[in-house]
Specification:
heterotrimer; A alpha/beta; B alpha/beta; C alpha/beta; A: four-stranded mixed beta sheet; 14 helices; 5 strands; 67% helix; elongated; B: 5 strands
Chain lengths: 369, 373, 239
């Protein structure tokens, strides 16, 4: 590395370090978010508020009620004789699911006639709606086979279920790699885009161009300090994940760090590209937001599974770098795999970096129109 | 006199806003882009799970189970082998999401002891997804077991049966889109209300025009009002646009009263704008304004039940959510748009919003007066 | 109402340990063109900001247009005009829109705004374009005119001719003289020492204090220097 380039990088570093406010924001906020979201974001369904509609109570309805109330899943918030009570409770958001027995429930059971139950679920959130339903069904079916077991002997198939890589189904294990990606994107892509376009706006870029630095050197010089910052963020996030959330680290930490670095480079390249193509700071910010943050959070598989998306969006997600990083991160952290299983994804990220960087250097317009 | 100054300032603000072509274009595009993206991407529905079959029994009974799984359209056997190692590899390389392991002697066990076991191994990277897939699988297996039972002893008295019917209220097709879209509208409002306000005011700071105004006899209250009112009106316009797009482009039902929606939005905006104003007093550059606003908004949004239910959060987070105006507004939006809730139904969150808004705005104005000489 | 336009007495401003303005005192008579000179970092901008109410003094007091800048700041603001070092009119509004804005803020009637707008356009030779499109010299002249729009008693100009060509600078000073002739007190800071010669009186700030004050000819005689430039270099050079 030439002395000029080195001096330039040092200058850029000083810029960043002197802007105390921005520095604090960049280092602290991602950490705060990772910790906050790690604790708070869950998709498990608990404390489901249950309304029982019981026109007549008998031993069977009472037994089922007891079974539902036992255990931590359900909380019986009301018992009513008719369905009329359910509507207002749903509307006011005071109940999640209603279970209605038909009159003469126990009698039907005794007569071996189908005894009907209606499960009405507040399905505004279809995801939790389905899960709540499944939980309720499980309890009911268990009771049903219990009754049957007392009478005769039906066939039972007992599945032994194992949830690999995430035995406790911890949501945080799911979200954390995605959060890291998001944080990295924010720092790398957004910051670079804004910083570069700010220099363009102010005209200080022209000074750089008159200097012996070549365009690619200018870009590298600008990018390296942010790489450092991004790396610092990754380290803190991973430390938080490990120490606070006990997210497993089954694979090689070195590999994870290396891949994080790679991902940072892709984001940085994206940021530089955005700055190259836009005119002012504000435009750069808006475009960067749209082109990096939005896809990284929605289309990357961080929260919503890619497999559930319509085919068109699945195709689009292929060009979202975060998607590949999340696969890699989850692979390393949860499954403990190494490059032998992740080489495809790594190659994609590396390819993206080279491509975007090349594009950025090509289109680098140092002056604002 | 005061009203005249306000009018003069408002004219300036609106002129500036409408001359900012880029921003206008963004404002108009944003609802479309976000609604489209979020509504298409935001679903947890499992289409088809890829199953790796390790059938060591290869009996009629085991094949029967596999057929049932296939028939359900939710499971597809993508590979089969006798080697559990290959199956595990498939899980590692994500070629399959689930392993169905049927042990040798499955059929024999069922015919002799009326009880059999098998293995379901899931790739639980995505815990929620695995859980849902698991419950589907269990349902199918249980149904199959019942079938086998009746087949094998047709003469015996039937066992007691419970027949379960389910109905999903408010979201008949279990469309995740309907659930997400009120949240997206809230996000739009928050972006405009908080981010734009902060950026707008800090821009004047950065350019130096704020100093120029501070030297004039312009009352601070007039300045603040002139900043907030146009943004308030723009946010409401965004909401209207968003609602129209949601209704006519994406077919989201609007069950409740639109007037109520706008009423709640007006109140919510007090909070959003107040926060934007407060942010503008703490930073000096637009870049910082953007970052702080963005982080704040992100925290508010994620902790509000937009993506993950508040009720799934730990106790302390749920407490925090009670103080989160976004959470209440989203609850109001969902209740009114999807469930047709009326004023009385949303009274509680509405009051909380009003109080929070009053506090936020007062605090922000006080802070502004303090830090601008 | 006293007979000085600006009256400063032991005005001080400290930022933590650092004293930016150290107990300065001076008077400016009505209708005077007063040049407030000093090196960068001598405390000029801080002093001006205190006089126009953007910064509160740590100690001492100042009266502008006969009113106390701390206790009667609202009234002071009605009577002063300000042109900052950085151009601070709205670039995305037109000339007339800017005038209408500030006119409205200062309480001018619509009729007054109309008449003054058209006379301003004519005298400056401007068309009603977006201010951002005007060349620098015209922008400065516009900012100056807007500062005078409400006919203030005192107008504060912070480096008004920075970066402007000599012809425009000359035109600018003609505007300043015209204003002074009408009775407006002009308080101007500048780096251009030849402009110092145009002022009725000048003061030179060094390290937060006023090193000297008087009319240009008085000072040249007193210090035995051929030009204010020389005087400035002698006083402002770090010891």
């Amino acid at each position: 590395m030439t002395a000029t380039l080195r001096a330039f990088i040092v200058k850029e570093l000083r810029h960043i370090l002197r802007d105390r406010q921005t520095l604090t924001i960049l280092l602290l906020m991602p950490l705060v978010q990772v910790v906050l979201f790690g604790f708070a974001l869950r998709s498990d369904v608990r404390d489901v508020r249950l309304v029982i509609v019981e026109p007549q109570s008998d031993y069977a309805t009472l037994a089922l009620r007891a079974r539902l109330a036992a255990g931590r899943r359900f909380k019986v918030v009301a018992v009513a004789p008719t369905m009329a009570a359910v509507e207002p409770l749903f509307r006011q958001g005071k109940a999640d699911i209603a279970l209605a027995f038909e009159p003469g429930f126990a009698a039907q059971l005794e007569a071996n006639e189908p005894a009907r139950i209606l499960l009405a679920v507040d399905a505004s959130d279809p995801n939790t709606g389905t899960t709540m339903q499944a939980y309720a069904r499980a309890v009911i079916t268990a009771y049903e086979s219990e009754l049957g077991a007392q009478r005769g002997r039906p066939v039972r198939i007992v599945p032994e279920t194992r949830m690999r890589f995430n035995p406790t189904l911890e949501s945080v294990n799911l979200f954390l790699p995605g959060l890291i990606a998001l944080v990295l994107t924010l720092v790398s892509a957004l910051m670079t885009a804004i910083s570069l376009s700010r220099e363009k706006e102010r005209g200080t870029m022209e000074i750089l161009l008159v200097s012996p630095l070549r365009p690619w050197q200018i870009i590298v010089g600008k990018v390296v300090p942010y790489l450092g910052l991004a790396f610092a963020n990754v380290l803190t996030a991973l430390l938080a994940a490990w120490l606070i959330f006990h997210v497993p680290f089954r694979g090689s930490v070195t590999l994870l760090l290396a891949e994080s670095l790679l991902y940072s480079m892709v984001s940085l390249a994206l940021g530089v590209l955005v700055a190259s193509l836009t005119g002012s700071q504000r435009v750069a910010m808006l475009v960067a937001l749209l082109a990096t943050m939005l896809p990284s959070s929605l289309l990357s598989g961080m929260v919503f599974p890619i497999a559930s998306m319509p085919p068109f969006l699945q195709a689009v997600s292929n060009i979202v770098p975060a998607r590949w990083f999340i696969i890699i991160a989850r692979g390393i952290m949860l499954k403990g795999v190494g490059l032998e299983h992740l080489w495809r994804e790594t190659l994609v990220l590396a390819g993206m970096t080279l491509f975007l960087m090349a594009l950025a250097v090509r289109t680098f317009k140092p002056r604002v129109a | 006199m005061n009203l005249r100054i306000l009018r003069v300032l408002l004219r300036k603000e609106y002129l500036q806003i409408f001359r900012d072509k880029l921003m206008l274009r963004q404002m108009i595009l944003m609802p479309f882009i976000q609604l489209f993206l979020l509504s298409s991407a935001a679903t947890f529905e499992v289409k088809t799970a890829n199953v790796f079959l390790v059938d060591l029994d290869k009996s009629a009974t085991s094949r029967g189970l596999v057929d049932r799984l296939h028939a359900s359209d939710r499971f597809a056997v993508v590979a089969s082998s006798a080697s559990m190692n290959l199956a595990n590899d498939a899980l590692l390389s994500r070629d399959a999401g689930m392993i169905l392991g049927i042990p040798h002697g499955f059929e024999r066990d069922i015919t002799t002891t009326r009880s059999g076991s098998l293995q379901l191994i899931f790739n639980a990277e995505d815990g929620a997804l695995a859980g849902v897939t698991n419950s589907y699988a269990q349902q199918i297996i249980a149904a199959y077991a019942r079938e086998l039972g009746t087949e094998m002893r047709p003469i015996v008295t039937e066992a007691p049966r419970i027949e379960i019917r389910t109905r999903g209220w408010y979201n008949q097709e279990l469309d995740y889109k309907d659930y997400m879209i009120p949240g997206i509208l809230v996000q739009l409002l928050t972006l405009v209300g908080t981010l734009l306000t902060a950026m707008n005011i800090v821009r004047e700071k950065e350019l130096g025009t704020l100093d120029q105004l501070n030297v004039t006899p312009l009352p601070r209250s007039a300045f603040i009002a002139a900043k907030l009112i146009p943004l308030w009106s723009i946010a409401l316009a965004e909401l209207a646009l968003g609602l129209m797009v949601a209704r006519w482009v994406f077919g989201v039902p609007i069950v409740g009263s639109i007037t109520l929606v706008f009423f709640a939005a007006c109140i919510y905006l007090f909070v959003a704008l107040g926060i934007g104003l407060w942010v503008s007093t703490t930073v000096d550059t637009q870049q910082q304004a953007m970052f702080i606003s963005f982080f704040l908004i992100l925290v508010y949004l994620l902790m509000s039940g937009l993506f993950t239910p508040v009720r799934s959060m730990p106790e302390w987070a749920q407490l925090m959510a009670e103080l989160n105006p976004v959470k209440h507004f989203i609850a109001i939006m969902r209740a009114v748009l999807l469930k047709g809730a009326g004023l009385m139904d949303i009274a509680r969150p509405l009051v909380i919003l009003a109080v929070t808004g009053a506090i936020a705005l007062t605090f922000a104005v006080r802070q502004y007066a303090k830090t601008s000489a | 109402m006293t007979d000085t336009a600006i009256s400063v007495h032991n005005l001080t401003r400290r930022f933590g340990d650092f004293t930016a303005v150290d107990s300065i005192s001076f008077d400016v008579a009505p209708g005077e063109v007063f040049g407030f000179l000093g090196a960068n970092g001598a405390g000029k901008t801080t002093a001006i900001k205190m006089l126009i109410g953007l910064l509160a003094p740590t100690a001492g007091d100042a009266r502008v247009a006969g009113l106390d800048v701390v206790k009667e700041i609202e009234e002071v603001r009605r009577r002063i005009g300000y042109m900052s070092q950085r151009f601070s009119l709205y670039e995305d509004l037109t000339v007339l829109e800017n005038i209408a804005l500030f006119g409205g803020i200062y309480g001018l009637t619509n009729a007054e705004i109309r008449t003054r707008s058209s006379s301003m356009l004519t005298s400056l030779g401007l068309t009603d374009d977006l201010v951002g499109r005007l060349p620098l010299g015209w922008k400065q002249k516009l900012a100056f005119s807007v500062a005078l729009l409400h006919q203030p008693a005192v107008v504060f100009l912070d480096e008004p001719t920075g970066g402007v060509d000599p012809i425009t600078r000359r035109q600018f000073w003609e505007l300043i003289y015209a204003a002074a002739e009408r009775g407006t007190t002009v308080f101007v800071t500048t780096h251009y020492m030849d402009e110092a010669e145009y002022c009725d009186r000048i003061s030179i700030m060094v390290d937060g204090r006023i090193a000297t004050i008087g009319s240009p000819s008085e000072l040249k005689q007193k210090w035995g220097v051929p030009s204010i430039d020389e005087l400035f270099v002698r006083l402002a050079r770090p010891s």
